[in-house]
Write a structure and sequence with these properties.
The complex is a heterodimer of chains A (109) and B (117).
Chain A lengths: L3 E3 L2 E5 L4 E6 L4 E9 L6 E6 L5 E4 L2 E6 L4 E6 L8 E9 L3 E4 L3 E6 L1
Parallel strand pairs in A: 2-11
Antiparallel strand pairs in A: 1-3, 3-8, 4-5, 4-9, 6-7, 7-8, 9-10, 9-11
Chain B lengths: L3 E4 L2 E4 L4 E8 L5 E7 L6 E7 L2 E5 L6 E7 L2 E7 L7 E8 L12 E2 L3 E5 L1
Parallel strand pairs in B: 2-11
Antiparallel strand pairs in B: 1-3, 3-8, 4-5, 4-9, 5-6, 7-8, 9-10, 9-11
Classes of the chains: A mainly beta (109), B mainly beta (117).
């Protein structure tokens, strides 16, 4: 039931782009994206409520393919502050909410 | 005010102790959550309260007992815990989406780091 994220870990140089994928085996109502830095609480990035919806702010955007039960998070021109662990959170029938397996992202100068 | 506060920040307890974790929010959110997070793992949902009623209990052992005294406050009472219960306990709150018990943006507190000896 836990969504699977890929890749598990990625290292980027400043300015490079990255894509993080989130895949669920269940039909989804919504997908959330969070970033968590070591020792801190998860911080909300965005929520996607409808299939095909794409959202973004600054250089971080996301898409939600309802039919494939997948979501992708796009980080462009990465900055050092983007480092952390990214989690998708998926909501399925029965008010079930699960965080994905996580993707560790490290941005180096 | 988009803050969720949790107390205490750190807690060390023995297996025979009784302790409580506290979570508070003043954003008018009517959904509140407890999560457990082990190192390098994603948060695991434990309980969800919606409009002060327990709506989800993810098969959590009875040594964890949640309580929602009012719309701003959420407690987690701990009794006879095991060392494997040591973890970061996160509280979150959200505004239920109109007409449904679904999650909207969840705002997380800083967590309570619990160590059971």
């Amino acid at each position: 039931q836990q969504p699977v994220q890929s890749p598990q870990a990625v290292i980027l140089r400043e300015g490079e782009d990255a894509v993080i994928n989130c895949s669920s085996s269940k039909a989804l109502y919504s997908v959330h994206w969070y970033r968590q830095k070591h020792g801190e609480a998860p911080i909300f990035l965005m929520i996607l409520l409808k299939g095909g919806e794409q959202k973004g702010h600054d250089k971080i955007s996301a898409s939600f393919n309802e039919k494939k039960q997948q979501s992708s998070l796009y980080l462009t021109a990465s900055q050092l502050s983007y480092s952390g662990t990214y989690f998708c959170g998926t909501e399925a029938a029965g008010n079930q909410f699960y965080f994905g397996t996580g993707t560790s992202l490290t941005v180096i100068p | 005010d988009t803050e969720v506060t949790q107390t205490p920040k750190h807690l060390v307890m023995g297996m025979t102790n009784k302790k409580s974790l506290k979570c508070e929010q003043h954003m008018g959110h009517r959904a509140m959550y407890w999560y457990k997070q082990k190192a390098k793992k994603p948060p695991e949902l434990m309980f969800v309260y919606s409009y002060e009623k327990l709506s989800i209990n993810e098969s959590v052992p009875s040594r964890f007992s949640p309580e929602c005294p009012n719309s701003s406050l959420l407690n987690l009472h701990l009794h006879a815990l095991q060392p494997e219960d040591s973890a970061l306990y996160l509280c979150a709150s959200s505004r239920p989406l109109a007409g449904e018990v679904r999650t909207d943006t969840q705002y997380f507190g800083p967590g309570t780091r619990l160590t059971v000896l």
